[in-house]
Amino acid sequence: CSRQEAVQEAFKPGAAFWREHNYHDPSTGYFSYIMPAKPCGHRRDDDGGGKTARKSGREVKSLLEAVVACVRAHAVAWLPAVSEGDTCEWWAHCRCHASGHQMHFDSAFEGETTGGAQNPILSSVLYLSEGRVGGPTLVTNQRLKDTAMASKGYLTHPKANRLCMFQGDLLHGVLPGRGVVPNIKSARRVSLMFAFWPMMKGKAFEGATTGPARRLPLDRGARLWSSQLLRPLTKDEAEAAAQPEHSTAKPGRAEPISPIWWEVLKPETQAAKGPLPIAPYEVCFQGF
To answer: Strand, helix or coil at 193?
Structure first.
């Protein structure tokens, strides 16, 4: 099957990835994995003297590496600074239609780093489920050190194989899905996120516990999820991974939306006051 179908199979609602991470257990916290982000496909070329020279880069060998290489190629085309990043951090979510995600900043180790929160160069969302399940991703123009609340934002609606990209220091979240999903009670909004960093050392993989920025397990066969994602590429997949420039992706624009925040106690005076000053997180009602 294609890379897209293989990734969708590995992260479908009933997949081993969710079960082996106890994802749906309320006591399970945020967890992510890191891996090298440098471009794919080192190859040998004739150096003119009858010898072959290996070009810089890293050979793509697994399904997950091929997906990261593809996302990175699109990211570099949109934001060239991503080419300087050495590390890709990825994580995934599988949520019901009405479940959103609180507004937040992507940060290394959930903000627990020396010198304050550190943000990635770029963050991205790859949607794996059908568009009628779950709400859109909301990305705002608010940054961590701003003195005013976000004045505008952009909505990207889920659609299978759609990629949403934005600068990694922007406030963002997911709106709850509206209405009902007809005849599909078990349907879930499945998304795979990728953040590109200058460098991140991460922590060793621990099978019994989860956490942010874990290095991938070396014994991929010990777990079904890792055997699915780290399996060798098929011949067709390897040929596709070696030619990332041949893309059929169609660039699009997110839906602009404004305002983002509204002062509910005095809405009639907000327009006259202009941007709202930064408010404490706990007083911001986010709709769920």
So the answer is: strand
